[in-house]
Amino acid sequence: MASVIVDGREIEIGGHERLNCIEAARRAGQEIPHYCWHPGLSVVASCRMCLIETGQRDPATGKVTMVPKLVPGCQTPVKDGTVIVTESEKVRESRARVEEALLIDHPIDCPICDKAGECLLQDYHFEHGQAERRADLHPFTSRKRDVGPTVTLFVDRCIMCTRCVRFTREVSGTGELMVTSRGAKEEIDVFPGFPLDNKLAGNVVDLCPVGALGDKDFLYQQRVWFLKREANVCSGCAAGCSIFTEHNQDTVYRLKPRENPDVNRWWMCDDGRYGWHHLHDAARILAAGRRGAGTAACAGAFAAVEWADVVASLRADLERSGRLAVAVSPMLTVEDAWLLCSVARSIDERAFLALGHVPAAGDDESFPGGFTIRAEKCPNRNGVEEVLAAFGSGGRGWDDLLAHVAAGHADAAWVTAGYPRPWIDEPTAATFSGLSCLVVQDLFDSPLTALATWRLPAAGFAERAGTWVNVAHHAQSFRQAIRPPAGVWPEGRLYWNMLGRRGLYDPATVRQEMAAASAPFAALADDPPATGVDLRVRQLA
Description:
The protein is an alpha+beta fold. The chain has helices spanning 21-27, 89-104, 120-128, 163-170, 203-207, 270-273, 307-321, 334-347, 381-390, 398-406, 426-429, 491-498, 507-517; strands at 2-6, 9-13, 51-57, 64-66, 71-72, 82-85, 144-146, 151-154, 177-180, 187-190, 213-215, 228-233, 242-248, 251-257, 289-290, 303-304, 324-328, 352-355, 365-366, 372-373, 412-416, 437-442, 454-457, 466-469, 474-478, 533-535, 537-539. It has three domains: 2-87, Roll (Ubiquitin-like (UB roll)), CATH 3.10.20.740; 105-220, Alpha-Beta Plaits, CATH 3.30.70; 289-352 and 380-539, Rossmann fold, CATH 3.40.50. The strands form seven sheets. Strands 16-15-23-22-21-17-18 form a seven-stranded mixed β-sheet, sandwiched between helices. Strands 1, 2, 3, 4, 5 and 6 form a six-stranded mixed β-sheet that branches. Strands 24-25-27-26 form a four-stranded mixed β-sheet.
């Protein structure tokens, strides 16, 4: 173990760890301000905000020899005996001068800037800046430049940290951004004819420490201090990126990546970042409905049914119909899937259970920085497969279910979906046309809901709580971020009530039940679930 002294406090770091002074100071609870440094990018030490005093302690005599000049904390590695001073008068004066220099030409347009409330320039000015502005106040300018389909550059706000430039070269590998007119007139720009149009482009907005890069989708939509933030998981593909869902009054306004070194590091793709708008689509199914008696393809509109009546009537319809087949959607959480399979087996102990349709598009797409967008466009195929295996139905997929129904081995079917995009065509849906009872649970109408006896609404990713298992078998539990629209019950709540459970639907209770019944889910027994356990289903912090 190596010993490092931060502001007189001694901490230990692993001998194999390669930390700079910023990271070592964080271990001691001290935050060294910085603009240009980011743990996922190369070090340039250009902003000079992280200048600190440092030295080395002699292990034999204990004498400390200090470096005569301030050094950038981001560029200075620590080793055994390193001494770091972050709060001396010399350091404070340096920070104040750097902050003042950055603000001399920065437009004071905070009232109209999207970054206000989460801007490092604001935060560092109040914490480390001069008491008064010594330069003349000039009317602010706000030159805008369209650099791509999702990002706007506010040129005069840029402090030239170059995080965005390094990201496009080192992580996305597309290199659209550059620094032009280096010197007193330097600016960020795109290469002519090459707009910022890669699938990771939205990350540059998160990286920007000030308001220079604006997200067109979020621009002027909401003040950040009104937003509430919930740790969540992206449902856009099998990567299962850790994200924050930021919302206000049950409306989602933006998604941002949440650091998780084992899943997505610091990034997320634009497909996931902007893939939340279906939550507030006016075309969503917002009420439970049932057609009259007869075949599933009978004519007539759906009659609205109260949820209290759905619980009893749906079970009665399925019990009368006879042999049941169930498609368990990979959009459901493992808790939802467990309860659905339990409901199905309580209705028909020989119910045919199978994995629902797995949407896919193209091939996996990997980037130089290690990030991968998965072709499988669902978050929980692995989790649902584990649940099905626990119910003795492992290995059954959507095609198996279609063949089972087409062969006349089912009298009723329950198809869960919850897909944000169209997923089934009319010839495939026609497979279910001869059933006496067809239950379809989805976000939007489809050729399958046109044949349904029961049409039930599904919950979106931000409207549910539970656990998803990604392509690497990492399980991540999350809580509900927003309430579903009025008239929509999350799937787990319906299944919970159909099983006669008392009280409110509780995913933690279901996880404990799963852990007791099936060894692969033992890691999910705790609440929050255990970390670092790998039993095909591995739970991360």
